[in-house]
């Protein structure tokens, strides 16, 4: 079963793995989908989580969050952590207009899954998974986009994990909206697991979210 390796809301890692985040800009706590979430108001607002030991970039990955977007224009970064270089890489998970997009990155090779119909001002459960070959995005427990990569494990990233901003340059793709119940897992989640988390964030044994 996948294990949660990071969850931060507002900036404290609820898994006990000490992946706590640092706030930049005017990110603030507001009412979320479940309890409190974090609100991003565009340029300058983001959270950075240091990852010197590459613990947040496992070989395969699953990520989940509740999101309430202010608008669906352009790109809004959810979770991103990557380097465009050599043996490095990892992922960029963001919106692309009304679609949900998930890049899996090896150096400059970046296949991606892109699809779905996100709506502004509505709470929507989103997820992204990579199982060593299949790249998938999920909206409200259903596959939104799907693509295949060459069979290989993720490369690490030397960047911090970014929440709400592009993961390499840290200067565009600002989130405008509220995120809640963010979590990263060390395996690709199944559809059943995603739907279980969506219904009850503590519904999987051994998984603890903020």
Description:
- The protein has one helix at residues 191-199; strands at 4-6, 22-24, 28-31, 36-41, 46-49, 61-69, 75-81, 89-96, 99-106, 112-115, 124-130, 134-139, 142-148, 161-163, 176-185.
- The chain is mainly beta and 210 residues long.
- Strands 1, 3, 4, 6, 11, 12, 13 and 15 form an 8-stranded antiparallel sheet that branches. The chain has a 7-stranded antiparallel sheet with strand order 2-5-14-7-8-9-10, with no helix packed on it.
- It is globular.
Q: How many strand segments? A: 15
Morphology: globular
Cα-atom radius of gyration:
15 Å
Report how far apart the termini are: 19 Å
Strand content: 35-45%
Fraction of residues in H or I helices: under 10%
Please count the helical segments. 1
Q: Please mark out the parts with pLDDT under 50 across 5 or more consecutive residues, or reply none.
A: 6-15, 205-210
Arithmetic mean of pLDDT: 89
What is the element string, with H for helices and E for strands? EEEEEEEEEEEEEEEH
Structure classification: mainly beta
User: How would a textbook summarize the main sheet?
Assistant: 8 strands, antiparallel
Assembly level: single chain
Key attributes of the depicted protein:
single chain; 15 strands; globular; seven-stranded antiparallel β-sheet; eight-stranded antiparallel β-sheet; 4% helix; 210 residues; 1 helix; 42% strand; mainly beta; disordered C terminus
Offer a concise description of the structure:
The chain is mainly beta and 210 residues long. It has one helix at 191-199, and strands at residues 4-6, 22-24, 28-31, 36-41, 46-49, 61-69, 75-81, 89-96, 99-106, 112-115, 124-130, 134-139, 142-148, 161-163, 176-185.
């Amino acid at each position: 079963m996948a294990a949660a390796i990071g969850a931060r809301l507002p900036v404290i890692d609820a898994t006990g793995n000490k992946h706590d985040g640092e706030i930049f800009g005017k990110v603030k706590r507001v009412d979320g989908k479940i309890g409190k979430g974090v609100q991003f108001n565009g340029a300058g607002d983001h959270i950075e989580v240091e990852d010197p030991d590459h613990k947040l970039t496992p070989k395969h990955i699953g990520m989940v969050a509740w999101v309430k977007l202010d608008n669906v224009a352009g790109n809004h970064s959810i979770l991103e952590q990557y380097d465009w270089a050599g043996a490095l890489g990892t992922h960029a998970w963001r919106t692309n207009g009304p679609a949900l997009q998930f890049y899996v990155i090896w150096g400059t090779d970046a296949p991606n899954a892109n699809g779905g119909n996100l709506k502004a001002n509505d709470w929507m459960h989103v997820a992204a998974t990579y199982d060593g070959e299949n790249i998938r995005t999920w909206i409200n427990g259903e596959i939104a986009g799907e693509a295949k990569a060459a069979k290989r494990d993720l490369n690490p990233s030397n960047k911090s994990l970014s929440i709400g901003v592009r993961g390499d340059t840290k200067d565009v793709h600002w989130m405008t909206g509220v995120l809640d119940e963010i979590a990263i897992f060390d395996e690709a989640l199944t559809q059943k697991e995603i739907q279980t988390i969506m219904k009850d964030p503590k519904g999987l044994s051994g998984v603890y979210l903020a």
